Amino acid sequence: MPHPYTQAIRAHEQREEGIRLQKVLAQAGFGSRRKCEQIITQGRVEVDGKLVTTLGSRVDPSRQQIRVDGSRIHLNDKHVTLALNKPRKVLSTMDDPKGRFTLRDIIGDRYERVFHMGRLDYDSEGLILMTDDGELAQHVMHPRYEVEKTYIATLSGHIGGNVCRRLVTQGVELDDGLIRLDHCAIIDHNREHTIVKVVLHSGKNRIVRRIFGAIGYPVTRLVRTQIGPIRLGEIRPGSYRVLSAAEIKALDKEVGL
User: Fold this and answer.
1) CB 186 within 8 A of CB 195
2) pTM of the full predicted structure?
3) Position 78 confidence tier, pLDDT thresholds 50, 70, 90
4) 60, 121, 132, 182: which is the annotated catalytic residue?
5) Is the Cα dihedral 82, 63, 57, 51 positive or negative?
6) Are 255 and 139 in contact (CB under 8 A)?
7) Which of 19, 90, 143, 222 could serve as 124's disulfide partner, Cβ 3.0–4.6 Å?
């Protein structure tokens, strides 16, 4: 058994020089040390944007960005990301001085460091992503990456397919500029209401409500069902689930991490 002094020296050296890259890859679930060494020598690993093919290279995973095949790696216990189904009459905040229900009332105190990536207005429902990964949150919310979002909107009044096509091809002029939908499809309708599925990249405040309000069809119910590759699925209103490693990898890829 190593002498305590020797162990202290080794720990100090690790803090000073970092951790061997193949060990970090193994901790992130890429297989045995030998397998991870092969991944490195095959030229599949980048550290801070630079290709690393030398075995024995040391890194600091808390400070450096490590990618395999272009995707950022995750150490198994580093971050948590949640998918939450926000009901109506819940604020997209973590606290409210007026005592109204917030996202904190849904997730409780188990994840004290998580925060929401984007918002839904007070009367809207559906998917909100939450995380304690600041880098991921910055990319998801930044307009540069334009993450695709899907909504199911119930409109007051009956619209035809020509209205949907016009919103995709021509768009509508709002106070803050022209906006087009990426996709618009009628799901159901009657004399009083029309249910449409819309997809768009814009994350502007109340954008779906403003689009349809501007053409005379107010939104009476709005549910966000998907953000990038993450779907609302079977999450009950007022509940949440932890995203899987595969979902995190897909979301990372969507926002260029």
Assistant:
1) yes
2) 0.73
3) low
4) 121
5) positive
6) yes
7) 222
